[in-house]
């Protein structure tokens, strides 16, 4: 699924004194899992920003999934966000995935993402989550699904890596 973005760039005006915003016609944001982890997430963790904000950083758990399209940069039915991994308990690695109306529940195990150059090298992990309305134990499953991408724990920057994640909805 391709994601159409209304991306604008600032270019110098004709006289050289005024700048104007120009839309990028035909621009599509459709990254692979490897590109999301190896380029976008890695750059975010290493604090190397891009000139164009393709992926917003927000706390997605402050929103119910049906409200996320309003804060996304795309018009399609697939959105990308950087989000810090919250903790359920202060001294625990267990993530907190509760929103105002429900919670995100992990389905299955983390799936490794391998480098195309070196098929033995795990460059990231992908987890699938499903949104449930209501509270844990009494929630009702919805059609909302999210993929969480993160760098592996054995990464050189493992402390900050475990805190940052990229979500695809």
TrEMBL record:
Stored InterPro entries: NAC-dom (IPR003441), NAC_dom_sf (IPR036093)
GO molecular function per UniProt: DNA binding
Subcellular location: Nucleus
Pfam families: NAM
Matches recorded under PANTHER family: PROTEIN CUP-SHAPED COTYLEDON 2-RELATED, TRANSCRIPTION FACTOR JUNGBRUNNEN 1
Annotated source species: Acorus gramineus (Dwarf sweet flag)
Stretches assigned to the NAC domain: 23-169
Protein's name in the database: Transcription factor JUNGBRUNNEN 1
GO cellular component: a single term: nucleus
């Amino acid at each position: 699924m391709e994601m159409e973005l209304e991306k604008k760039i600032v270019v110098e005006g004709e006289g050289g004194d005024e700048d104007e915003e120009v839309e990028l016609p035909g621009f599509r944001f459709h990254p692979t899992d490897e590109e999301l982890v190896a380029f976008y997430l890695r750059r975010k963790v290493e604090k190397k920003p891009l000139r164009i904000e393709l992926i917003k950083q927000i706390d997605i758990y402050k929103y119910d999934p049906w409200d996320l399209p309003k804060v996304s940069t795309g018009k399609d039915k697939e959105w990308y966000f950087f989000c810090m991994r919250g903790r359920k308990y202060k001294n625990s690695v267990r993530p907190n995935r509760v929103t105002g109306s429900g919670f995100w529940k992990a389905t299955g195990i983390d799936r490794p993402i391998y480098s195309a150059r070196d098929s033995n090298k795990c460059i990231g992990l992908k987890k699938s989550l499903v949104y449930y309305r209501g509270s844990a134990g009494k929630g009702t499953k919805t059609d909302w699904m999210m993929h969480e991408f993160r760098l592996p724990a054995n990464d050189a920057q493992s402390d900050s890596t475990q805190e940052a994640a990229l979500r695809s909805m």
